[in-house]
Amino acid sequence: MRHALSIEPTPTGIARAPEVAAPYLEISDLWKSYGDFVALRDISLSIAKGEFICFLGPSGCGKTTLLRAIAGLDLQSNGRILQGGRNISTLPASNRDYGIVFQSYALFPNLTIEQNIAFGLENAGRSRAEIATRVNELLATVGLSEQSKKYPAQLSGGQQQRIALARAIAISPGLLLLDEPLSALDAKVRVHLRHEIKSLQRKLGVTTIMVTHDQEEALAMADRIVVMNHGVIEQVGSPTEIYSHPKTLFVADFIGETNQFAAKVLKDGAVEIGHSAFDCSTKDLEAGTTATAVVRPVDIIPHGAHAHVVSAVDRPATPQNLIDAEVREMEFLGMFWRTRLTAPRLGERTLVADFSVNAVRRLNIETGGVIQVEIPRDRLLLFPRSA
Amino acid sequence: MNIALEAPYLPLAGKRLRQETSRDDRIKFGLMAVIGLYLVVALGAPLFVMLSKSLSTYRFDLAAFEFQVSDETGAKWGPVVTADALNRTLGAVAEGDLASSADGRLAATKFFPDFSFRSPVHYRIRGTTDDAAFLAGSTLEKGTEWREYDSGTFRRIMLRPARTLGLDNFKTYFSTPALARSIYNSVLMAAISTVVTISIAFALAYGLTRSCMPLKGLFRGILAIPILVPSLLPGIALVYLFGNQGIFKDWLLGYSIYGPIGIVIGSVFFTLPHAFLIILTALSIADARHYEAAASLKASKWRTFTTVTLPGARFGLVSAAFVVFTLVITDFGLPKVIGGQYGMLAVDIYKQVIGQQNFEMGAVVSVILLVPAILAFAVDRRMQKRQVALLSARAVPYVPKPNVRMDTICFAFACLVSFFILGMIAMCQIAAVVKFWPYDLTLTAKNFAFDLMDGGGWSAYANSIRLALLTALFGSVIVFAGAYMVEKADAFRFGRNVFHFLAMMPMAVPGMVLGLAYIFFFNNPANPLNAIYGTMTILVVSTVTHFYTVAHLTALTALKQMDPEFESVAASLKQPFHRLFFRVTLPVCLPAILNIAIYLFVNAMTTVSAVVFLYASDTKLASVAVLNMDDAGDIAPAAAMGMMIFYTNVAAKLIHALLARGLLARTQAWR
Amino acid sequence: MNRHMFLMLAGAMSVALPAIATAQTELTVYTAVEAVDLDRYKATFEKSHPDITINWVRDSTGVMTAKLLAEKDNPQADVVWGLAATSLLLLKTEGMLEAYQPKGVEALDKKFVDKDNPPSWVGMDAYVAALCYNTVEGEKLGLKAPKSWDDLTKPEYKGHVIMPNPASSGTGFLDVSGWMQMWGEEKAWSFMDKLHENISAYTHSGSKPCKMAGAGEAVVGVSFEFPGAKAKSAGAPIDIIFPTEGSGWEAEATAIIAGTANLEAAKTLVDWSVTKEANEMYNAGYAVVAYPGVAKPVEHLPSDIAAKMIDNDFEWAANNRATILKEWQKRYDAKSEPKS
Ligand SMILES: Nc1ncnc2c1ncn2[C@@H]1O[C@H](COP(=O)(O)OP(=O)(O)O)[C@@H](O)[C@H]1O
Ligand SMILES: [Mg+2]
After folding, report:
1. CB of A61 closer than 6 A to ligand 1?
2. Which secondary-structure segment (H or E) carries A52?
3. Which stretch of DSSP H or E encloses residue A354?
4. Chains touching chain A at 3 or more Cβ pairs under 8 angstroms?
5. Structural domain ending residue among the three candidates A238, A254, A270
6. ipTM of predicted complex
C-alpha cells in the first residue's frame, strides 16, 4: 500500500479480508455508551474464519468493551453482530459460542486444575469417562498433565494462564476471546507463551480475538491488527501494513517509534520542514497544507562522513533528503545504536536515528562527529493537522 | 483521529437494544424479586404503617353527638342540640383539651352545668354518624339511634374520641416535659458513653497494635465477651455491684447507680467490643512507612501520635463513634434495668406501648428515635465511602518495637479493662447462684428453676435456642442470597440499588421501632400475613431483619473478593449460574457464611428490643425472660437466665471455631 | 440447597397449621395468674369437664392487656380467666366482652361482679395493696415500721420508699385510685405530693417494689400482699403491713371474649369459675376470694385482709384513669428527673 497518507472517510478497513467470501464474525455500526460517555463509536469489522485478530490500543480505548460486546457480557447500545451467519446481537452470553480467557484468568480457586477444565464439559450429556479423556487431552495440549490434581494457587502465573486457556477451549468454541491474557506475566514467560498460544491457535484453527495494549505482542501474534483509539477503529491491517503504512498519525505514533516534525506542503512532492524542502509523497494534499511529518528512527539511513553519492544501500539517495547532522549522543542498545542527531536543516529539533552496529562500525560514527543521513523519500510520512 | 469525538450522538439513540433474557436471568430476577419482596414486607411496609400510625390521633368530635333534655316530668323533650353547639356557648372544654388518646373519655355532664344526678330530668343522646361512640357506664354504645337515660345514669355517660390524622401526637409529645426531656437525656447519655467508650477502645486498640505487651490474644478474647450477653446483664451486674446493697456502693460517693451513672457504665460495657474492633481494624492497617518517615524526621512520640496515628485512624474513630452512639441511643435493655427514673427514648416506647397501651404515642417516640439513628447512619455511610479510597493504597504493616515503659502501661490498662469486663460477668455469675442476696449467701441452684417464675421458664430458653438456630439458618440463606444478587446479578441495576438501600436500612432502625412497626403491620386481620403474628416465624423474620445490615455487608465483602469474571466464565462455558454458585461461590464464601451464621445466632440469643413486642405466650424468649424477671423484681433468676444466654453463646462460639477449623480445613484445602 | 433444608424453609415460613380437629373443645384462655398456679387450675377444671381442654396463654397483666387490645379486631382468645378487673373493664368499653350471667353468680360478693346486668366480668380473688418493710435495713437506719399510708410521708423515709409507676403498673394505679376513693382527689394529690418526696424509684412492675424491699434495695416497697408472702417464704427479712387507712385492691376476674367460636364451652368455664370449688382453688395463693366464707388464711398474711379493702368502684377507676394518669405524669414524671 503506497498511499500512506490517504484519508478515507471511514476508518473502517475490511482491508483484504482473506480468501473467504462470507466473514465468520461481522460487526456493523456498533456503538456503546455509558451515560454520556461514548465508549465505542460506530465500529464495523469483519473477521474471517480461523483468523487471529488483535485489538490494539492504549488503555481505556474500548478494546475490552468491544470484546465484551462480542461475548454478550456487556450489551452494546446499538449495532449488529453476526457470528457464523447467525445474528447474535442480543443473545445472552450463555447462548453464544465462544470461550474466553480473562486477564485475571478467573480460575475457580476451590477446584483442582482438572475440575476447572472439566467445568464446562459437565452438564452436557457427556459421560465421566469422556470428560476425563477430554480433560487429559487438554492438559497434554497445554503441557500440564502432571499438575492435574493441584489447585490454581499452587501454579505459577504462566501455568494458570494455560489452564484458563485449556478451560476456554475445552468446549471447542467457534470463537476464542482473550482479554490481555499475557499482561500479568513477566517478560520472559510472556514471549514464550506468545508462541504457544499462536501455535495452539493454528493447530485448532479457532478464530481468535486477543485484546492487548502491547504493540510488540500484537505485531508478533496477529494475522490482522485492529488499532483502536477513543472508541473508534483507527486502522485495520496486517502487522506490516500497520507498521509501514499507518493511516493516521495516531497509528504511526502508537506502533513503533517516530520522529515528528511540523511540516507544510510546498507543492506536489515536496514539503517544508524547518526551513528547507524535502522530497516526499504528498499524495493529494494541497500546497500550503500544514501537516506532521513522521519518520521512524530505523528508517533513517546513515551515509558516512562525506559520502555524497554512494549510499549504504544500493539505491541512489535523493539529494534533497540528504542532510548533515552532528551526533550528539550515542546509546548502545545491544542490537543497534540509538543516536541523537541535530541537523541545521531540521531546525533545533533532535532527530532520533537507529543505526545497525555494522553501519556504525563501517561508517565510523561517533559522538561529536558529523555525518550525512538520508530521510528516504518513501519513508517520510505526512499526516495533515486537524484544524 | 478526532472526527468522531465531535459528534457525540448515537444513531437511533431512542431505540436502545435490549438483551434477550436467558433462563438464568429469569431465575435471578425471580430470586431477587423474592428477596426484595422480603425486605419490603419485613422492613419497608411495617415502617410505613408505623409512620402513619404516629399521625393517627384521637379527638373528641363534638359535632358527632346530639343531646335532648326532658322537662321535670321526663315526658316533654327540649330541642336537639349538638355537643359542639353546647360547648360553644359554654366553653366547657377548651379546644386544646379535645385532643385525646385511644382510651380518652369525656363526661357528657360537662355540657350541662346545672346537671344534678338527683333531678328527675331525663337525657337523650345519639351520634350523628355511625362511628360516634360513647360509654354508658362501661357499656360501649354506637350509632345514630336515640338512647335515653335518667340523670343517675347520665352521670356515667362518657364520650369517646374519634380517630383522625394529624400532628397532634407530636404536639402532645413535645408539650409533655417528661417525654420531651427523654430526647435530651438519650442524646446526652449516648454522647457521654460514646466519648468514654471511644477513648477506652482507642487506648486498648493502640496498646494492641503499637506496643509489645504480652497476652494480646487473651485480651482480644476478653474484649469480645460483652457481645455474648444481653445488654440487660451489665445493668443487673451494676445493681449488685453498686446498688444499695452493692459491694462497691461506697465508690459512688453517695450517687445512685440507678440513672445516668449506671447507664453510662453499662453502655460502655456493652458497646466496648464494637468500638474496639472497628478501631483495631483502623489501626492495624496503618502504614509502617509513615512511622519510619516520622522517625527519620526525628518527630517526638507525641507528634508522631498526633500526625500519624490519629489521622490514620480517624475514619475508624468516627465510624466507631457513630456505631456506639447509635447502639446507646437505641438500646432498651440497659436503661430499663438500671435507668431508674431517668427517661430514655427507647424505654419510653416500651412504657407507652406495654405500660399504657398508647400505641400512637409509642409510634411517635419511635419516629423521633429514628431521627438520630438515621442521621448517624447517613453521616457514617458518607465517611465509609471516603475511607475505601484510603484503604486501597498498599501499605506495609507496622510492627511495634519493644519499649518497657510503654508496654507496661498498655498491659496495665488492658488488665484494668479486662478486670472490669470479667468483674461484671463474675458478679452476675455469683448473683445467679446465691440464695438470697445479700442476706443469705449460701449457694443454690434455685435461681435456675425458671419454671417457677414469671418470664416463661425453661421453655423460653429452649425457644431462644430455636430462634437463634432458625435465625442463623434462614438469615444466612436470605442474606447471602440477597448479597449475591446485589453483587453478581449483572442486569437490573435499578432493582439492585433499591435492594442494597433496603439492606442497609435496618442498621438505622432501632429494634424497638422495628418491633412496634411489626405490631402495626402484621397484627392486622386485613394483612394476609397476619397469620405469622404471634408465631416463631415473626420472631425469626424480625431478628433477621434487625441484624440484616452487618450480615449483608459481611456477605458483600466476601463476594467482592471473588473474581468478578467467574460469572462471565460460567456463562461462556454455558453453565447455569446456580452451578457456579453451589460449586464455587458458596464453598469459597463458606467462612464468611459461618461468620454470618454465628453473628446472627449470638444476636438472636441476646436481642430484646425488637422481639419484646412480638413474642407470644408460647414463644417467650430467654432474653425477654431476663427483662421480665428483672421487671418483676426476680433479679437473681434474671441474672441466672442471662448467664444461661452467656454460656450458650460461648458454646456456640466454640463450636463455630471448631467448625471453622475442622470443616474449613477440608473444604478450603486450596487456600 | 438440599431437599431437607428446603422443607425446613417451607415449614418455618408457612403459617401455623390449623389444629387437628377432635371431639374435644379447645379453649384458648388468656390469663395473667401466676405461672406456678396454671397447671393446678387447668387440672382442677378439666377433671370436672373432661370434654374441654384449656390452652393457656399467659403473660403479665400489662402485656396481656396490651395483647388483648391489639387483637381487638381479630380476637384470638375465647376466655380471659385471671386478669385485673380494671383491664377487663377497659376491654368492655371497647366492646370486646360477651356479657353473660354465670350460673351461681349470686353467691359471690357483689364487689366482685360487674355492675351491669348481665355482667361482663366476674371476679375470682383480690390482690390488696400492702407495704413490704425490710426489717434489717430499717433497723440499720433506725427507722420504725410504718403503720399507715400517712407514715410514709414522714421525712425519715426520704429515699427509702419505692412504689410502682401507676402509668405502667396496674398495682401502682390501684394504689392511686384507692387513695383517691378513700380521701377524695384533693387530699390524695397532696398526699402523693409529700410521698413523692420520699420515693426513690417508681418501678414498672407492681411486685418489684416488694422484691426490692426484700433484697434491701429499698426499705419500704409499696406493693401488694401476694409477692410479699412469696418473698418472705424465700427468706426475705420483711414484714407485710396493711396500712390502717385501708387498701386499694384489684380483682382478678373472668370474662368471655365477644365473638368466640366456642361460646358454650366458654360459658361452661365461666360457670365453673364462680363455683365454691374454684374459689377454694384460688385460695391456695390468694387470701381474699370472691366467694364469701371460703377463704382460709394464707401463710405470712393476716386473716382479716378483706376488712382492709376499700369499697372499690372499678368503673370510676376505669373512666378516670386517663385523667388521673395525665395529672400524675405532669406532677411526678417531670419532677422525677434526677436533679444532679
Ligand atoms: N461500566 C462502565 N461504566 C462507565 N464507563 C466504563 C465502564 N466500563 C468501561 N468504561 C469506560 O469505557 C472506556 C473503555 O473501557 P475498556 O474497554 O475497558 O478499555 P480498554 O481498552 O482498556 O480495555 C474507558 O474509558 C472506561 O472508563
Ligand atoms: Mg481492557
Report:
1. yes
2. strand A52-56
3. strand A350-356
4. B
5. A254
6. 0.82
